[in-house]
Amino acid sequence: QVQLVESGGGLVQAGGSLRLSCAASGRTFADYAMGWFRQAPGKEREFVAAISRSGGMKSYGDSVKGRFTISRDNAKNTVYLQMKSLKPEDTAVYYCAAAPTNLYFKVVVKAAEYDYWGQGTQVTVSS
Fold first, then answer.
1. What is the maximum alpha-carbon separation in the chain?
2. What is the CB-side half-sphere exposure of residue 7 using CA atoms within 13 A?
3. How confident is the model at residue 16 (pLDDT cuts 50, 70, 90)?
4. Hey, how many other C-beta atoms are within 10 angstroms of the C-beta on 5?
5. Bridge partners for 46 per DSSP
6. Average pLDDT over residues 19-47
7. SS3 letters for 9-43?
8. What is the pLDDT of residue 1?
9. Which has the closest alpha carbon to 81: 37, 40, 43, 33?
10. Predicted confidence band at 101 (pLDDT cuts at 50, 70, 90)?
11. Per-residue confidence band for 11, with pLDDT thresholds at 50, 70 and 90
């Protein structure tokens, strides 16, 4: 089992920045590819970003490319999502997730491949 706890959400004005953190406990954090997803009211869950076990490979959803950056610190068992130039359409509950993989450089973009999910943190961007 892996327990994931997100933090760092809040209310920010359009154009502002936030950094989300996701702290993992339980199994060996470095054994998991990590990802961030979001879900806005009335919408389907959307892929935001993913990072490989090594941290060397990353992938981003089209709507956040160039504005969001995913990173991880395996020594701290934490994955981050730095969000810049936020827009009202970024408003959503943001979830981190962990996917077990034997592949050190694999990024996982499909929600169905993630085994563990955090409880989510709300991000609200005002116009």
1. 43
2. 4
3. very high
4. 14
5. 38
6. 96
7. CEEEECCCCEEEEEEEEECCHHHEEEEEEEECCCC
8. 86
9. 37
10. very high
11. very high
